[in-house]
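Morning, I've got a small favour to ask if you have a moment. I owe you a coffee for this, so here goes:
>
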Amino acid sequence: MSSQTPAPEAPEGGAPQADEADSSTSHSGHATITVTSTDVASNTITATNGTITATSPSTAHDPWMKVLHWAFFSVIFAVLPIAAGYLIDATRQGDRSFSDLISHGELYIVSAGLTAAAVGQSFMKKNSKHRFLHAILTFTNIGLFFLTSFLYADAVAPNAANNPEVRRDVMAELSLWFFAITLITTGASTVLAEVEE
């Protein structure tokens, strides 16, 4: 005498369906789950052999934050010795003006360092979306590097120290102009490189 076990009844409405809010894809022990919420636009969680890796847009690449880091650490830190010298001279009641303080080519050194760093960053970009603009900025920074280096060498030349024909006020004003131009070109190179990443 044979007995048959009744098959389990399916729930009403047909076969069970997965929740539409969750999506999971599994291939050979690898699962990728995408979760959407109101606070975070998209979080990707990858699980492989018990290891879970989560990626959130809040920790993603932030180009403008890196630009701020460049402005703070590369520019402000570079001119801090000049500012410190001016403050020390002011506290000791020195008679040197700011123009006299930067008339020995200090800003030329800062400008040369900024342009060299910008050129190196441009050469690291192999697949640039704006190659023509990158090329213009790179050659401009190279030209500024050699020009500011030459002007610094001329400012600190031994025969320029006691030469009455040397206009220190003109040299100070010229160094300020080159420093401003350098900030524009190197800043543009930094923004372009970071935005494209």
